[in-house]
Design goal:
Number of helices: 0
Helix content: under 10%
Mean pLDDT: 96
Largest sheet: 7 strands, mixed
Distance between the termini: 40 Å
Shape: globular
Low-confidence stretches: none
Radius of gyration: 13 Å
Oligomer: single chain
Structural class: mainly beta
């Protein structure tokens, strides 16, 4: 059974940075696509960034040039580096494993 534990969320001012981490267990990890999604209050969950087993990446248009997804297969961890954060980035961020398993989410709030 796959378990995902996110960390790194918090309160940050506009223009600031955060790095989210998602540690996986119970999985081979390296062969799976990993992704970050987010859900703001009153909105649907949306894809933020995805990284394949071959390290190909894709991003939502709203975060291109500001966010970077990466993975460390030896640590079974996927990261989301978020720079130049904006108030509209405020949401609960969720880690996704292989399109099926979800973490519990971590809150990111961008506010002055």
């Amino acid at each position: 059974q796959v378990q995902l534990v996110e960390s790194g969320g918090g309160l940050v001012q506009p223009g600031g940075s955060l790095r989210l981490s998602c540690a996986a267990s119970g999985t081979i990890f390296s062969i799976y696509t990993m992704a970050w999604y987010r859900q703001a209050p009153g909105k649907q969950r949306e894809l933020v960034a995805r990284i394949t087993s071959g390290r190909s990446t894709n991003y939502a248009d709203s975060v291109k040039g500001r966010f970077t997804i990466s993975r460390d297969n030896t640590k079974k961890t996927v990261y989301l580096q978020m720079n130049n954060l904006k108030p509209e980035d405020t949401a609960v961020y969720y880690c996704n494993h292989g399109g099926t398993s979800w973490g519990q989410g971590t809150q990111v709030t961008v506010s002055s």
